[in-house]
Amino acid sequence: MWFPHPDACDDLTITDTETGFQLSAPDGSECAIWLEYFNRTEELHEEFETFFVEMLREAADRALTTNSTKEETNG
User: Fold this and answer.
1) CA-based R_g, the chain, Å
2) What is the DSSP letter of 65?
3) Are 30 and 4 in contact (CB under 8 A)?
């Protein structure tokens, strides 16, 4: 799965919705092209959504583990 350059992600907007979240980006931006690609079909959208949510969970777990380790070290 491809992702935009990290600097391009500054254009990415995440909005809370009743069913979860929605990602958007300004037209023509690298993130907009990325989102358009994964919205071409329902299958691509589901693949992206599953991967993106898992990536967020892993990042949150790493952050929690890092913070927990720092607290134990400083505690």
Assistant:
1) 16
2) H
3) yes
Contact 25, 11 (CB under 8 A): yes
> pLDDT at position 56, please?
87
Q: In the numeric block, which tokens belong to residue 70?
A: 């720092």
Cα–Cα distance for residue pair 39/45, rounded to 1 Å: 5
The amino acid occupying position 31 is C
Q: What is the pLDDT of residues 2-13, one digit of tens each?
A: 788 888 889 999
pTM value surpassing 0.90 = no
44: pLDDT confidence band, cut at 50, 70 and 90? Answer: very high
Task: Name the burial class of residue 34, with classes exposed (0-12), middle (13-18) and buried (19+) by CB atoms within 10 angstroms of its CB.
Answer: buried
Q: Are 51 and 44 in contact (CB under 8 A)?
A: no
Residue 61 CA to residue 68 CA, distance in Å, equals 10
